[in-house]
Design a protein that fits this description.
alpha+beta, Alpha-D-Glucose-1,6-Bisphosphate, Chain A, domain 4, 9-stranded antiparallel sheet, 38% helix, ASHA1/2-like_C
């Protein structure tokens, strides 16, 4: 359990705003260090065999201008690819998202660290309408990315990610992740009452009470 929560604490989270072709966007931003070289981390992000072990199985034309699809329904276009430092994609959900161009983009930036490690930065910008942001705040996407980055850390540490955490560990991780995104939301100027309600809703969505 301590290792899982240490991974959660390793990430710095911020919420911001940005602009996409479809309009004003919210951003969730995650920054952390991985104890591996930049080429290895880039390979984990772009090699389909490794990508499926921490994100989801991927298919498509995996080169700039090509399109991709994940096993969970997310899909998009590869907008920018500069190995081993920058990868940017559009990030859409479900078939109806094809009618909403420019509504969601994910950019990952890597930089070599001073000790053979790598600085990792992920920015997910999305034009979010009711009820997602008003109900869940940045945790709507932020908790999901925290879970994926935990799996990435495990992969880089040599685990195969086939052993799931216990229900208690998973629920505690989600609870603390949602609370951390609540802190980022409040630091960005969120109303405390709205923030508290969003944290509660996000926690219930990702880790519903079995009762």
């Amino acid at each position: 359990m301590k290792d899982v929560l240490d991974e959660l604490a390793a990430t710095r989270r911020t919420m911001g705003t940005g602009n996409l072709p479809a309009g004003d966007a919210y951003t969730v931003e995650l920054r952390r260090r991985y104890d591996t070289g930049i080429d290895d981390l880039w390979d984990a992000m772009t090699n389909p065999e490794r990508l499926r072990r921490w994100l989801k199985p991927v298919t498509g034309d995996l080169r700039p201008g090509g399109t991709f699809a994940l096993d969970g329904g997310e899909h998009g276009e590869i907008l920018r690819c500069e190995p081993p430092r920058v990868l940017k994609v559009s990030w859409l959900y479900g078939p109806e998202a094809d009618t909403w161009p420019g509504t969601s983009e994910v950019e990952v930036r890597l930089a070599p660290g001073p000790a053979g490690d790598t600085e990792f930065e992920l920015i997910h910008a999305a034009v979010v309408e009711e009820p997602l942001f008003p109900t869940y705040g940045p945790g709507a996407g932020g908790v999901g990315w925290d879970l994926r980055l935990l799996s990435l850390a495990r992969l880089l540490a040599g685990h195969d990610n086939t052993d799931e955490n216990t229900d208690h560990e998973s629920s505690e991780f989600v609870r603390r992740s949602a609370a951390a995104w609540g802190q980022a939301h409040q630091a960005a100027g969120g109303d405390p009452t709205h923030v508290a309600a969003a944290v509660e809703a996000t926690t219930a969505f990702y880790a519903p009470d079995p009762a």
